[in-house]
């Protein structure tokens, strides 16, 4: 099996940002509706049929992994050699409210050291994908996993992304029984899309790939080769995004550390990007997406991270899920909000409402993962059990580094023309 080809066909080269998913949903809505949708939801993980739709829309389907790879450093603020070992022991009940948990995490975050600086901001995470496999009438679900890393240069405009297929297995006990009944296969053909026959060289596999796919956003051409680069008037690259607002590393570090001021800044971005905000519930969902952007993959200071937790604590509709294990088996607690779609969005994507949650450690302030549950499966997602955990992105490392990223071995964009398999 050619692992690089497998990865190219199985998913987008880079994990999608919130705005990438929103743009895909907006385009789909406009194609189906009689008029463009004026409002759309913030959602990081959008379940779509595995295969052609996911690849063409740039959306990754997430899933809970039952036997994940060993977790990396536990802290979102970790640096090599200083991270605490992850807590993976038995869960202890935690009945504190969302407000209490978030304020506890905020207090612990302020004890953490500043992430400092370096040539590259490195974000690494584990991601899952729920995939339906098997013969017609005997289908079951597997959980495919990906190990991802991305390097953001502080002064240059490109990014480097590394993705490796990290293996798969049946998603639940019922899926495991169906898998055994099917002969316990060690691989499954990748759906090549409507009208395309199976390719024997393109398969999901139980085993992890031995190589990774590395791409550079400008394909090594540099900014002078027609690559569109976002820069500030001072010439600094705006690499980091919050709800579609692109910021430099210094701008991210300079965000308000006062919760009220940070909330107002986020509301300003929500208004600028025309995100839902007409009701408290809509504003809460949009704010949740903004805080999620801040907590995951952005080089914020401990003070801004603490403020972000407090913004979450004051959001309408935020609830505590208590003690949970994240997708890599680390212990934490979770707070959640329900994401409801507009009528236009329901026409475009009828999978149903979602509960989106952030898993974190109230004892260290570490942000662990972002997860999605499908509350009312419908249409093409009807095979997913109600309330199932269908998506996660689990942080394994976020830090500054002076080490160079690996050299690119693949193009930054993999596309298929109309009718191509």
What are the SSEs and their pairings?
Layout: H1 3-10, H2 18-32, H3 52-57, H4 98-109, E1 120-133, E2 140-153, E3 160-170, H5 173-181, E4 187-189, E5 203-205, E6 213-216, E7 240-242, E8 245-247, H6 249-253, H7 259-272, H8 280-295, H9 302-313, E9 319-325, E10 331-339, H10 343-348, E11 354-360, E12 367-374, E13 388-401
Antiparallel strand pairs: 1-2, 1-13, 2-3, 3-6, 4-5, 7-8, 9-10, 10-11, 11-12, 12-13
Helix pairs in contact: 4-9, 7-8, 7-9, 8-9
Protein architecture, described:
There is one protein chain. The chain is built from 10 helices and 13 strands. It has a domain at 3-81 and 119-221 and 230-254 and 338-398. It has helices at residues 3-10, 18-32, 52-57, 98-109, 173-181, 249-253, 259-272, 280-295, 302-313, 343-348; strands at residues 120-133, 140-153, 160-170, 187-189, 203-205, 213-216, 240-242, 245-247, 319-325, 331-339, 354-360, 367-374, 388-401. With 421 residues, it is α+β, with helices and mostly antiparallel strands. The strands form 3 sheets. It has a 9-stranded antiparallel sheet.
Condensed summary:
This protein is an alpha+beta fold. It has ten helices and 13 strands.
Sequence of secondary-structure elements: HHHHEEEHEEEEEHHHHEEHEEE
What's the end-to-end separation, in Å? 18 Å
What structural class should be given to the helix and strand makeup?
Answer: alpha+beta
Lateral strand order in the biggest sheet: 6-3-2-1-13-12-11-10-9
Looking at the structure, what is the overall shape? globular
Query: How would you state the average pLDDT, rounded?
Result: 77
Low-confidence stretches: 1-82, 222-229
The strand count comes to 13
Helix proportion:
10-25%
Oligomer status: single chain
The major β-sheet equals:
9 strands, antiparallel
Beta-strand level of the residues, as a percent range?
15-25%
């Amino acid at each position: 099996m050619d692992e690089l080809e497998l990865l190219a066909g199985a998913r987008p080269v880079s994990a999608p940002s919130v705005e990438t998913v929103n743009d895909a949903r907006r385009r789909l809505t406009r194609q189906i509706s009689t008029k463009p949708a004026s409002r759309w939801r913030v959602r990081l993980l959008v379940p779509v049929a595995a295969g052609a739709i996911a690849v063409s829309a740039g959306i990754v389907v997430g899933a809970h992994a039952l036997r994940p790879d060993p977790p990396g450093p536990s802290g979102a603020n970790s640096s090599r050699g200083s991270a605490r070992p992850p807590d993976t022991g038995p869960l202890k009940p935690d009945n504190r409210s969302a407000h209490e948990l978030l304020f506890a995490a905020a207090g612990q975050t302020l004890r953490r050291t500043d992430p400092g600086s370096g040539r590259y901001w490195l974000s690494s995470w584990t991601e899952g994908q729920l995939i339906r496999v098997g013969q017609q009438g005997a289908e079951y679900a597997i959980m495919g996993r990906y190990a991802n890393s991305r390097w953001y240069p502080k002064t240059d405009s490109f990014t480097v992304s590394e993705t490796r297929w990290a293996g798969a297995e049946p998603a639940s006990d019922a899926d495991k029984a169906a898998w055994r009944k099917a002969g316990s296969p060690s691989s499954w053909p990748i759906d090549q899309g409507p009208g395309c026959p199976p390719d024997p060289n393109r398969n999901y596999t139980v085993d992890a790939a031995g190589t990774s796919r590395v791409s550079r956003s400008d394909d090594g051409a540099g900014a002078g080769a027609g690559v569109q680069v976002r820069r500030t008037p001072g010439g600094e690259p705006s690499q980091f995004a919050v709800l579609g607002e692109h910021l430099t590393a210094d701008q991210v570090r300079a965000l308000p550390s006062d919760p009220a001021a940070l909330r107002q800044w986020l509301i300003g971005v929500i208004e600028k990007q025309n995100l839902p905000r007409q009701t408290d519930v809509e504003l809460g969902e949009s704010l949740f997406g903004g805080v999620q952007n801040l907590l995951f993959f952005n080089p914020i200071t401990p003070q801004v991270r603490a403020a972000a937790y407090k913004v979450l604590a004051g959001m309408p509709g935020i609830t505590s899920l208590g003690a949970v294990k994240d997708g890599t088996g680390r212990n934490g607690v979770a707070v959640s909000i329900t994401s409801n779609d507009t009528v236009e969005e329901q026409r475009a994507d009828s999978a149903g409402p979602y509960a989106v949650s952030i898993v974190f450690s109230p004892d260290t302030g570490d942000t662990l993962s972002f997860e999605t549950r499908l509350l009312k499966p419908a249409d093409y997602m009807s095979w997913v059990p109600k309330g199932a955990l269908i998506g996660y992105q689990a942080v394994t490392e976020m830090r500054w580094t002076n080490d160079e990223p690996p050299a690119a071995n693949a193009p930054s964009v993999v596309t298929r023309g109309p009718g191509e398999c």
